[in-house]
Amino acid sequence: MRTENHDALVVGGGLVGAAIAYGLQRQGLRTLLLDEGDVAFRASRGNFGLVWVQSKGLGAPHYQRWTRGSAEEWPALAAELREKTGIGTGLHQPGGVHICLSDEEFEKRGAAMARLRREAGNFGMEYRMIRGAEAREMLPGLGPKVAGVSWTPYDGHASPLSLLRALHTGFTGLGGRYQPNARVERGTAAANDFAVEAEGVLHRAPRIVLAAGLGNAELAPRFGLSAPVRPERGQILVTERTRQVLPMPTTTIRQTEEGSLMLGDSKEDAGFDLGQNPEVMKQIARRAVLSFPWIAELNLVRAWSALRVMAPDGLPIYDQSERFPGAFTANCHSGVTLAGTHANRLAPMIAAGALEPEMAPFTARRFDVRHAA
Amino acid sequence: MKEFDLAIVGAGPAGMSAALEAAGLGLSVLVLDEQPAPGGQIFRGVERAAGDPALAGEYAVAGALLARRFRAMPNIDYRPETTVWHIDAEAGLLSLRGPRGGGMARAARILLATGAQERPVPVPGWTLPGVMSAGAAQIMLKQAGAVPEGRLVLAGQGPLMWLLAAQLARAGKPPALLLETTPRGALRRALARGGLWRGRAMLAKGAALLWEARRSGMKVVSGVRGLRAEGEGRVRRVAWEGGATECGVLLLHEGVIPSTHVSRALGLEHEWDEAQLCWRPVLDGWGASSAPRIAIAGDGGGIGGWQAAVEAGALAALDAAHRAGRLDAAARDRRAAPHRAALGAALALRPFLDALHAPSPAVLAPPEDATLVCRCEEVTAGQVRQAARLGATGPNQVKAYLRAGMGPCQGRMCGATVAALVAETRGIPVREAGVLRPRAPYKPITVGELADLPEEEPA
Amino acid sequence: MFATRPEFRPATVEVLVDGQPLSVPEGASAAAALLLAGLAASRETPVSGAPRLPYCMMGVCFDCLAEIDGVANRQACMVTVRPGMRIAPQCGARLAGTAA
């Protein structure tokens, strides 16, 4: 078999893999990005598109900081991608809200936000709990059932698909090689010497990054890593385009650059079933109509389900292999939010050969019973 | 929620025939159709229009009779103006949007009789006002008795072109010109496919139409290539390699392909039909698909025309009755025999027609980069080629990169073209590029209608 | 762009197309009414503002999107005309929310 040598292999061409591959290639590493074909689970194609900070990392301050860091890196990444590729990612970070449909929800939300601020410590966390009347001035057309909202200035949104195309275009523009139809199921691992086979070619490199989404669960152990991720199904509804009406995104409703409203944030345990469920779609629609009654008249033109990549505690897993130095894994369900840190902070660490100490809490060893004990 | 023995989606020839056969065998039948009246596209509006002399022939006789029998049959719950926007194939649950909002229905067996759509003809300028599909003009005639105004040019190929030309001539508006795209040499290849004797009745009808259209004064240019519509704000001229002419209305047609939007959304197994250059669901001799509850009859299972659809609908209904325990296998097979014979006769000429009217590669994958392929999101052939070079191996990834197929038509108009362009760019067969995987809602439903769906009853 | 043949379709329905009264044959669709009215365009695309008229008339292409009785973006070829129906071009993206 023909052998090709690279500086780094990235397995998985979704948002996580593409952001890391882009970052590695930018560092000067000759990187091969291996992706599946036209039909695969592809959480990236199903992403809702929030660049979201509030509600991330309750009880996990390291994750809160990582997320905030990514929101901070985003504008530079978006500008750089636009300059290199001409592709806009639709990034807007006007702040965002979480809508509470009852006093009880509002109280609970307030408590959670207060805890997030406490856990942020010196790092700080600006937020406000805003009652109905004032909230209705911020967000025209907010329904009478809305008790209030939580607001932070850090939140925003972007187009997941434009981001994916910009990362792929930027990566190949820097000289990186994108190889589709290359599902990786096996490989060989030795310290700083990895090989995988794709379309009859053996690809070798001293570094490998596993970013294959749900595929990481099977793949990671072959490289001395662990990625106990499982699917969590989410469904999303998309309306026809309307003239711009929403000044900022909310946790479950956002208006895209094109003008469509996206409604989402369902969570189901449905295994690997990508089916759609009208009952869940109805609940999403109901919540949207309670939040903004005028949404009721809009046509839904598309909807889909996708599978989030979830670790048992819902937090990302970033890890490096102790047995096979040079092997890394990245797993998360926030490929858009975390694109900033993946490209600008994680990729340089991988290029340098080791994750920095701040990444230690993200290790998969946190699920190891003996380790936890 | 009432449970039906058989739910049929579509009230064209296949759907009406299946409903008649199934109801005749005592099955409870639900028929859901988007149109306000039975007929499908081929017999569209037949109850009102059968008396129009322009539409004399099969439409006025066979179509009207089928619709009359369908209306008269008890035991059919017929719901016109009703869209199916989701099917849960495992549970037999259909999500509907009717004139009074959303609803649900349950059925032991579901027959998709969703028919055909015209193959997209993405030539430069095909989005200009004044350019329409030939089928659209025929629907104007059937539904409103209306004919195009101004200098009328037909471009493309296929039996519908000649039928339409004859019908418009009878309606007092013969087309000025037919630009026929059938390549030279196609007739020789088609003759080699045989079936002419068995299909002689159909062939004779076709020849009569040809004669009638030609006699009306319509000029014919054959072997036309490089077609383009031109004009600012509307079509003014149509040009081709070696010619050009003034034009008020341009009607395009390159045959029909199965409507597989719903069958693909259901994840049914499909195969690439090399003769008809389209995807079709994999079906057994009864129309049963790869999903246990779902069958398909009519052009949605592969193009065969309305007579084949009538027979396939009856066969699917017999199988539904058998599965429901109303007919044993022997009785089903006995009753099926005449339908199978008629189906064979109806399909006899098909290989000849498929070979004669095979669209040229330029219709499948427009050569000029500037040509729009996705009418909704306004994506060009050149952009699709660029996406394929970037790494998109099929239409689903192109959709993610470019939004082609994300507009309101959900890729019905561009899916096939995008796949063909990817195949061309990557040097692979179209079947390897694959096919768009649509999702519900199959047709738009408002957020309010979805939110107001009734509570699900315990099963 | 199309002309009726009243001798074969005598029964008509009065509708308003872009504010102008028009009598169209019974059973025709709202998209047919748009074509019979002779409008230069029945919609402008929300992407580039390009003018369009109905293309397929059979529920496939969605180029017949129009505002019908005040409801935006309806597939006009799937809607049968009713007396007094108001059919208007769909220009770009619809309005929504507080602006509507």
Describe the structure concisely for a colleague.
The complex is a heterotrimer of chains A (about 375), B (about 450) and C (about 100). Chain B has 17 helices and 23 strands. Chain B is of the alpha/beta class and about 450 residues long.
Give an account of the 3D structure:
The complex is a heterotrimer of chains A (373), B (459) and C (100). Chain A has 373 residues and is α/β, with parallel strands linked by helices. Chain A has 3 domains: 206 residues, FAD/NAD(P)-binding domain, CATH 3.50.50.60; 58 residues, no CATH class; 81 residues, D-Amino Acid Oxidase, Chain A, domain 2, CATH 3.30.9. Chain A is built from 9 helices and 19 strands. In chain A, the strands form 5 sheets. A 6-stranded mixed beta sheet of chain A has the order 9-3-2-13-19-18. A 4-stranded mixed beta sheet of chain A has the order 1-12-11-10, with no helix packed on it. In chain A, helix 1 runs parallel beside helix 5, helix 1 crosses helix 8 and helix 2 crosses helix 5. The mean pLDDT of chain A is 95. The longest helix of chain B has 18 residues. Chain B has 3 domains: 209 residues, 3-Layer(bba) Sandwich (FAD/NAD(P)-binding domain), CATH 3.50.50; 132 residues, 3-Layer(bba) Sandwich (FAD/NAD(P)-binding domain), CATH 3.50.50; 68 residues, Orthogonal Bundle (Arc Repressor Mutant, subunit A). In chain B, strands 1, 2, 3, 4, 5, 6 and 20 form a 7-stranded mixed beta sheet that branches. Chain B is α/β, with parallel strands linked by helices and 459 residues long. Chain B has 17 helices and 23 strands. Chain C has a domain of 66 residues. In chain C, 7% of the residues lie in helices and 33% in strands. Chain C contains 1 helix and 8 strands; from the N terminus they run E-E-E-H-E-E-E-E-E. In chain C, strands 2, 3, 4, 5, 6, 7 and 8 form a 7-stranded mixed beta sheet that branches. In chain C, strand 6 and strand 7 form a beta hairpin. Chain C is globular, with a radius of gyration of 13 Å. In chain C, 54% of the residues are buried. The chains are: A alpha/beta (373), B alpha/beta (459), C mainly beta (100). Chains in contact: A-B, A-C, B-C. Chains B and C meet through strand 8, helix 4 and strand 9 of B and strand 1, helix 1 and strand 5 of C.
